[in-house]
User: Fold this.
Amino acid sequence: MQKILPVNYNNEFSYNIIFDASFDELYSNIIKIKSKKYDKICIVTDDIVDTLYLNDLRDILSDKFKSVITFTFPHGENYKQISSIEKLYQYLIENHFTRSDCLIALGGGVVGDMTGFAAATYLRGIDFIQIPTTLLSQVDSSIGGKTGVDFLSYKNMVGAFYMPKLVYINLNVLRSLPKEQFACGMGEVIKYGCIMRREFFDWLQDHVAAIQQMDPEALLHMVYTCCECKKEVVEADPLEHGIRSFLNFGHTIGHAIEKLSGFSLFHGQCVSIGMVAASYMSVNKGFLDSKCLDQLKELLLSYDLPVHARDMDIESVLEATRSDKKMAGEKIKFIVLKDIGRADSYMDFTPDDLRQGISYVLNEG
Ligand SMILES: NC(=O)c1ccc[n+]([C@@H]2O[C@H](COP(=O)([O-])OP(=O)(O)OC[C@H]3O[C@@H](n4cnc5c(N)ncnc54)[C@H](O)[C@@H]3O)[C@@H](O)[C@H]2O)c1
Assistant:
């Protein structure tokens, strides 16, 4: 069942994304990365994924390299901090890791972003492999080379663009994901339909039952299509000077809500609410037919995603949105929808436009 999707960087081959239903072909794909085999491997994970898949991976890899060591972070966004990276640096130094060694990120977006950042900066860069285990990380965060950590209360404030050498997606690991985590990934999946593929949006409407029942073919089609979308965007605009910012659709208000919820709402849930707010603002400006907003809300709800946030103050969300690092002065840039499947950026939102979008998801959405 293995499928391969190559990703280019600056018009040259950069890495493969492998889609499989087990870890069986991991080793054969690692040794294809470069002619000389890695000496040492450090598998980096979090304490939940550790109990689920670390032994499997260790069993597969441990007799194949001079040494295979493991490092486990506590799980969750709260640990996506420089202090966690420092502990990993220290561990790599103690274990004499050099540039001929390799890190493997086994986990969701938090582990992937942190391991990638450690790989980008340790000894000015050592190789790393992404083995994403959440739906969100399989369809989004493991691809495209954005790595980093949160700083103070700012999300992803410190980081680097640094490409993995391989992304290995084992679709079967999605079976152990808690339902709400799966739903969070669906937020990003639906985002691709909204911003760039109408027919995929329609397909998602028609395959709710198959996806909820984890039908292997439907899952493969869904994850593969999202990776194709992400590949298309990051190849065209690797460093986010232009269309890569379309991937931020729903994220600006989403991040603000995530922050104000004290991270009690998950990232994907907040993105879902943020997409509704951004679509409402698109309707308000006359860019989008209100029927599309209704269709989007219906699709999000059918995949167990929220379309509103309660018990939050509009002005606080506005303030948090405007303090987001992407905001400059009075001009507010936002990703809007012109249709389902067609995004654009619009530079001239006013604070009041934002207020209306936020109010919609806090009061009516
Ligand atoms: N780099 C990028 O381009 C990019 C893009 C989007 C999001 N992100 C980042 O990704 C992070 C969110 O990622 P996430 O949603 O994967 O969260 P996460 O990494 O925190 O994982 C969510 C939870 O699921 C658990 N988990 C992981 N895999 C599991 C499995 N197979 N079975 C059971 N439990 C499992 C984890 O232990 C964790 O508790 C955020 O920090 C966000 O900023 C990065």
